[in-house]
Amino acid sequence: MLDLAPTTIGLIGLGVLLLLIFARFPIALALALVSIVGLIWLVGLSSTLSLLEAMPYDFASNWELSAIPMFLLMGAIAFHSGMTADLYAAARVWLRGLPGGLAVASNFACAGFAAASGSSVATTVAMGRIAVPEMLRAGYDKSLATGTVACAGTLGSLIPPSVLMIIYAIFTQQSIGDLFLAGFVPGLLTATVYAGMIVIRCKLNPSLAPMVDAHTTTREKLAVLWRIWPLPALIVGVIGSIYGGVATPTEAAALGVVLATLIGISRGQMSWRILRDSIMESLEATAAIFFVSVGAVMLTRFMLFSGVPDVLADLVRDYSINLIMLLLIISVIYLVLGCFLDPIGLILITLPVVLPALEPFKVNLIWFGILLVKYVEVGLMTPPVGMNIYAMKTVIGDQVPIETIFRGVIWFLVCEAVVVALLIAFPAIALWLPGLSWTPKLF
C-alpha cells in the first residue's frame, strides 16, 4: 500500500464516501465499505476484523435505541387509526376563516402529527394524503398547497418525539429527554412563522387561497375539538411519563404504543390489519435506520484512527475562528450535503468531523442538536433531492409537477433562515425549557 499519512487516508476516505453517495450508492453500504477499507489500511486486516466483530453488536445492543422502533410504531398506529384525519378536520374548522386558512390548518396539523410520528417523511405522506386534495378542491394555488405540507412535514424531525434526536443524543451522549424538551419551542416557533407567512401572502394575494364559504357554529367547533383528544393525550402520556420520573425514554416509547393501541380500540378504529400494517412499516423503517447507523459507527472509528477530527479542531484553534464564523461554515456544509443525503445519513456522517471542531468553544450540545435538526429540515426541502418534496410528489402523483412543488418551498426556506438566525442569536429559545443555561461568547 502507499505510504500515506493517516490524516490523508481519512480525507481520501471522506472524498470517496461523498463520490459514492452522489453516485446513488446505498448510504449504509458506502459507509461500511469506506470504513472497512480505511481501517484495513490504517490498522491492518486482523485488527479491523476484531473491530467488526464488536462494533455492530455494541451499537445495536444499546438499550436506548429500542425507543426508535417504538416511536415509529406509535406514529404508524396513530395514522392508520385515523387520529391524523381528525386532527386536520379540527384545524380546518377552526382556522379556515383566516386568509389561507386551509394551508394554515395543514401547517398546524402537521405540527400535531409530528409530535406523534417522529418522522418528517411520515408526516408529509400522512398529511399530504388528507390536506393537499382538499386544498386543491378549494381552488388553492398548487405550489402553496403542496409546499405547505412538504415543508411543515419537516417538523416531524424537530417536535418530539424525534428519531433524529434519539440518534443524535446517543452519538453525543446527551439526554434524550432534554433534547425532546429543547425541541418544543423551536418547533412551535417554526410552525408559527410558517403560519404568519401564509396569512400575509394570502392577504396580499387572495388568488392564492380563495376563502372557503362555509359557516360553522360554535357547537360544531366544540364538537370537533372532542375528536382530537387522542393525540394530545398520547403526547402528554409519553412526555409526561419521562419528566414525571415514571419511565425512561425507551419505556415511554413503549407506553406510547400501548396508549395509541388502546385509544384506537376505544374509538373502534383499531383492527388486526391496522396493527399488522403498522408493525410492518415500523420494521422496515427501523431496519433502514439501523443499517445506516451501524455504518456511521464504523466511520466514526475510522475517523478516530485517521486523526481527521483532531486536525480540524487544531485548525479552528490555530486560525482563531470565532463561533459565528464556524457556525456559518457548518451551515453551508449541511445545506450543500442536505441536498443529496437523507437526514440520518447526513447527521451520522458529519458528527465525527463537526463535534471536535465545536469542542474549543464549549458549545452546549443540546442547543447544537436543535440547530443541527434545523439544518437537516432545510435539506429535506432543497433540490436536487429534497426527500420531503419527492415524498409529496409520490402522494400527489401527476396532479402537480415537481417544479411547482419546489417553487412553493422557496417561501418556507426564507422562514427557516429567520428561525435559524433566531436560534443562533438567542440560544435560550431552545434551552430555557429543559432548564439549561448557556451564554456563549459568539465573537
Layout: helices, strands, pairs:
Elements: H1 6-22, H2 27-43, H3 45-60, H4 67-80, H5 83-95, H6 101-117, H7 120-137, H8 142-152, H9 163-172, H10 176-204, H11 218-226, H12 230-243, H13 249-266, H14 272-306, H15 308-318, H16 323-337, H17 343-358, H18 365-381, H19 387-396, H20 402-425, H21 428-431
Helix pairs in contact: 1-2, 1-14, 2-3, 2-14, 3-14, 4-6, 4-13, 4-14, 5-6, 5-11, 6-7, 6-8, 6-10, 6-12, 7-8, 7-19, 8-19, 8-20, 9-17, 9-18, 10-18, 10-20, 12-13, 14-17, 15-17, 16-17, 16-18, 18-20
Q: What labels describe this entry?
A:
mainly alpha, globular, disordered C terminus, 443 residues
Shape descriptor? globular
Order of helices and strands: HHHHHHHHHHHHHHHHHHHHH
Strand tally: 0
Biggest sheet, open or closed, and with what strands and sense? none
Mean pLDDT: 80
Radius of gyration: 22 Å
Number of domains: 1
Span between termini: 45 Å
Proportion of residues in helical segments:
over 70%
Q: Give the low-confidence spans.
A: 437-443
| Strand residue content | under 5%
Counted by DSSP, the helix tally is 21
Structural class: mainly alpha
Describe the structure.
By secondary structure, the protein is mainly alpha-helical. The protein has one domain. The chain has helices at 6-22, 27-43, 45-60, 67-80, 83-95, 101-117, 120-137, 142-152, 163-172, 176-204, 218-226, 230-243, 249-266, 272-306, 308-318, 323-337, 343-358, 365-381, 387-396, 402-425, 428-431. Helix 2 runs parallel beside helix 14, helix 3 runs antiparallel to helix 14 and helix 18 packs antiparallel against helix 20 (402-425). The N and C termini lie far apart (45 Å).
